[in-house]
């Protein structure tokens, strides 16, 4: 099959540098993400999964930088992107649900306000059309009564519900790739399965390409099309 990868990570190296200190954190990592597939990146805590995810969207912590290799998005090397270009990339192409993102919602601001904030760059149409879009997004992530959710505060919602709201916000950006970094860690076992099932459903129904990051290989194995296993800063094949 002649398919080009949407994302190609090629011999990536990430180094931590501060004053006299220098430590290679990610070494020679290569993998591809093809359109419409769900790839799980697994490996134990500290293996480097989050650092890779952050490198993909230009959100590396201070002191960390890409020192070797390429990250090609639709064939274009994004390593040299400036802040503005990365911002556009995150807004238009690669959405990232960050780890512990249950905190990613302001508990005391209406869901509606926070969702509106996320889509402020999209030209949707009239107020009514925007509201309908938000309701559709909430329905897409499994809410039976989206109006109620829209008019609630995150603190009134359960952990699983908040995670689904965040997912709806990510979907509102219409990304080509969704990176979900440990989307289930803060949830109980029933909600964990529900979120993974939902991601699978979104992949199948919307053709969304997903990079699912998890330390729990067993739970993601049955959902992912492929698994990239990280081992202390490198890929274990
Ligand atoms: N800002 C930073 N400064 C220095 N070292 C860092 C920084 N962020 C991460 N590291 C180091 O990089 C390595 C990989 O960390 P990373 O958070 O990517 O692991 P992980 O596989 O995502 O694990 P976890 O699931 O626990 O988050 C670890 O050794 C960590 O100490």
Automatic annotation (TrEMBL):
Keyword Membrane among record annotations: yes
PROSITE patterns cross-referenced by the UniProt entry: ABC_TRANSPORTER_1, ABC_TRANSPORTER_2
InterPro entries reported for this sequence: AAA+_ATPase, ABC_Ni/Peptide_Import, ABC_transporter-like_ATP-bd, ABC_transporter-like_CS, P-loop_NTPase
Domain ABC transporter: 7-237
GO cellular component: plasma membrane
Membrane topology annotation: Peripheral membrane protein
Localisation per UniProt entry: Cell membrane
Record keywords, A-Z: ATP-binding, Cell membrane, Membrane, Nucleotide-binding, Transport
GO MF entry, a single one: ATP binding
Principal location class: membrane
Family: Belongs to the ABC transporter superfamily.
Protein name: ABC transporter ATP-binding protein
Species annotation: Lysinibacillus telephonicus
Highest classification ranks of the organism: Bacteria, Bacillati, Bacillota, Bacilli, Bacillales
């Amino acid at each position: 099959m002649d398919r080009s990868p949407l994302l190609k990570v090629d011999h990536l190296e990430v180094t931590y540098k501060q004053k006299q200190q220098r430590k290679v954190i990610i070494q020679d990592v290569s993998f591809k993400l093809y359109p419409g597939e769900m790839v799980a990146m697994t490996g134990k805590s500290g293996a480097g999964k989050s650092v890779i995810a952050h490198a993909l969207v230009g959100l590396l912590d201070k002191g960390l930088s890409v020192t070797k290799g390429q990250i090609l998005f639709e064939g274009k090397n994004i390593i040299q992107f400036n802040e503005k270009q990365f911002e556009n990339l995150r807004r238009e192409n690669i959405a990232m649900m960050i780890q512990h993102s249950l905190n990613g919602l302001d508990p005391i601001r209406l869901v509606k306000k926070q969702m509106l904030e996320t889509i402020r760059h999209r030209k949707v149409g009239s107020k009514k059309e925007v509201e309908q879009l938000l309701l559709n997004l909430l329905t897409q992530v499994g809410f039976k009564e989206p109006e109620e959710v829209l008019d609630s505060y995150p603190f009134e919602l359960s952990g699983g519900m908040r995670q689904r709201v965040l997912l709806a916000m990510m979907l509102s950006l219409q990304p080509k790739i969704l990176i979900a970094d440990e989307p289930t860690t803060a949830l109980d076992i029933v909600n964990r399965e529900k979120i993974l099932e939902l991601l699978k459903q979104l992949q199948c129904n919307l053709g969304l390409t997903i990079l699912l990051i998890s330390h729990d290989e067993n739970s993601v194995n049955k959902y992912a099309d492929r698994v990239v296993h990280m081992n202390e800063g490198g890929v274990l094949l």
